[in-house]
Design goal:
two-stranded antiparallel sheet
Length: 587
């Protein structure tokens, strides 16, 4: 091909690529406008959104340009947002040039998008700290904050424009066990980084607003008066779940247990907690989950449509009931939203968070537990033996809530899964409400200023050999748990939050997970129904170790990004490679 012809072809390719980029950018800008208007209408007039943040995230957000990142960095350096980076150990001290600083920010953004930022922080702890995974560190980060988490009493106070704002700043990773528990218990104000959930109980930055919501919603999750009353609905679905698995194993030898269990966790939420009809659950289950996980097949509009149907049902269904209503308990969470007197944005955010986090965390916990039992047949046999005894003692009757307290070994298996594979590995994001002292290098007490952003992460503490012993990376339900750490259901301990300085799968009280009691009950209904009649086997038994990145501040982002993507895929797919034997096991 002649040189002038090659130039012409390359020019055509470049023009086509530019045109394609322009189309993507225009589509993104149009979606941002729709989302922004939708959020503002919700906050000002209580109109249900026509687009959720998840549906916006389905689209490919344009990458942050180098010039934009430079401007954000300059602004952060000027307003003092990066000051805490000089107080605690971390990679910023090695970043002398602007290029190295930009690299660290890009690396953090890449790791976060791939779900491997906690591995990155663990590498920073090992390199810059002096207490291993107990080291408190400060990391440079790009974070998105939203005004939609604020409680607006006056609609005129709601700003116009896109509610999400990208910033450069510092986040302190609190990993020292004593510091972590103290910070989580004392500093209740959340970082404003969960804008998709509006001013819900999990995301509001107004502590009084959080307390009001918490005090009202907690009735829906009371173990004996509420959960025991809706347990027949959960049990019925758990039995149907076992039937579904048997039907699937007649069709194929291999079942994607991750997708299967996420489906069942979503079904439990809608049927038992929200009191939705099965027809609505069947119609919305798949679309909800696809959009939440940003699946390539997710269709924009499906989530917001499903939310509108579920929200309107919760607001209008007169058959719903809480224990205090002096009528049969039905759909207690939906009834709590109906009777709470909160704004539409608050109720909508609470329904969205329970549908997302309530199914994602429980489904993945069950998947990881099945994965570990499939890897360790001796532990699986012990679970089967306990279930044989459990159902034998029932003598054909259905279990009631108090019977679940007898699943002692399953309790320990669930607790160990919550430790090794925490459903919320990120832990909790807070902002200091007043000055706080944390442990720095050589045990020195470092004073952090008010409003410093902190993250009490679970991943590093839950796998810290200094706290759990040399087998911290291994699944061992017989480990020496403290009494306050073991998760229980069906007994007086069921109302307690499993927590300690080294263990906080549901975050520490008082701002702990509201739905933990329901999650505990549904796991102890679904897992026994599945495991009493099926044996789990792995099709793949090898796990790839997480990457050791970054090697140095000068490492190219592309190398680290590739490593991050590979391991994220491995960790995501491995627990899905379970299959159940087509024939029921002998009891």
């Amino acid at each position: 091909m002649a040189p002038h012809t090659r130039v012409a072809v390359l020019s055509q390719h470049l023009a086509a690529a530019t045109q394609g980029t322009d189309v993507v950018a225009q589509r993104w800008q149009a979606a941002v406008k729709e989302y922004s208007n939708s959020v503002r209408r919700m906050l000002t007039h209580g109109e249900l959104p026509t687009m959720t943040m998840y549906e916006l995230m389905i689209l490919a957000e344009p990458a942050t340009s180098k010039n934009q990142l430079k401007r954000l960095l300059s602004r952060a350096e000027a307003d003092g947002s990066l000051a805490p980076l000089d107080l605690l150990p971390g990679p910023w001290r090695d970043a002398k040039s602007e290029r190295e600083k930009l690299h660290l920010l890009h690396l953090d953004r890449t790791a976060f998008r791939q779900g491997l930022h906690l591995h990155l922080y663990a590498e920073y702890q090992a390199r810059y700290g002096d207490a291993g995974l107990s080291s408190n560190i400060a990391v440079p980060t790009m974070r998105t904050h939203s005004y939609s988490v604020r409680k607006f009493d006056d609609p005129d106070e709601v700003p116009e424009g896109y509610p999400e704002k990208l910033k450069v700043g510092c986040r302190v990773i609190v990993a020292d066990p004593q510091d972590a528990e103290r910070v989580a218990r004392r500093h209740l104000r959340k970082e404003p980084n969960f804008g998709m959930f509006m001013d819900s109980v999990i995301s509001t930055t107004d502590n009084e607003h959080w307390r009001q919501q918490r005090e009202h919603l907690v009735e829906a999750f009371l173990p004996l008066s509420s959960l025991a009353a809706i347990m027949p609905v959960s049990l019925s679905r758990a039995k149907r779940c076992a039937e579904r698995l048997t039907e699937l194993t007649r069709e194929t030898d291999v079942v994607d247990m991750s997708d299967f269990l996420l489906h069942e966790a979503q079904a439990q939420l809608q049927l038992a907690l929200l009191g939705a009809p099965e027809s609505l659950m069947d119609a919305t289950n798949s679309d909800l989950r696809k959009t939440f996980m940003l699946h390539p097949d997710a269709v924009s509009g499906r989530l917001s449509h499903a939310m509108s149907e579920l929200y309107n049902l919760a607001q209008t269904d007169e058959t719903l009931g809480l224990p205090s209503d002096d009528c049969p308990v039905k759909g207690p969470l939906a009834r709590a939203l109906q009777s709470g007197g909160q704004k539409a944005s608050t109720d909508y955010g609470n329904m969205l968070i329970i549908l997302f986090a309530g199914h994602d965390t429980t489904g993945h916990t069950m998947t990881w537990l099945m994965y570990e039992l499939a890897r360790r047949p001796e532990l699986q046999r012990r679970v089967h033996a306990e279930l044989d005894e459990f159902y034998g003692n029932l003598a054909g009757r259905d279990p009631i809530y108090q019977d679940l307290s007898k699943l002692v070994f399953l309790d320990r298996c669930i607790t160990e899964t919550l430790r090794l594979w925490p459903a919320v590995a990120n832990g909790t994001f807070r902002q200091l409400q007043f000055e706080e002292q944390l442990t720095g290098l050589d045990g020195a007490q470092i004073t952090l200023p008010r409003e410093t952003l902190v993250q009490v992460a679970n991943w590093s503490r839950h796998r810290n050999p200094q706290l759990w012993g040399d087998d911290a990376e291994h699944f061992n339900p017989d480990r020496n748990f403290r009494p306050e750490e073991v998760s229980h259901v069906g007994c007086p301990h069921a109302a307690m939050n499993p927590q300690s300085d080294r263990f906080s799968p549901f975050a520490h009280n008082p701002r702990s997970c509201l739905g933990k009691n329901f999650a505990g009950m549904e796991m102890r209904l679904i897992l026994p129904e599945l495991l009493r009649s099926h044996t789990l086997t792995l099709t793949l038994t090898t796990l790839v170790q997480p990457p050791q990145c970054p090697k140095s501040p000068g490492e190219t982002p592309s190398r680290c990004a590739a490593a991050v993507a590979a391991v994220a895929l491995t960790l995501k797919l491995n627990p899905c490679l379970l299959y159940t034997s087509p024939s029921p096991r002998d009891s």
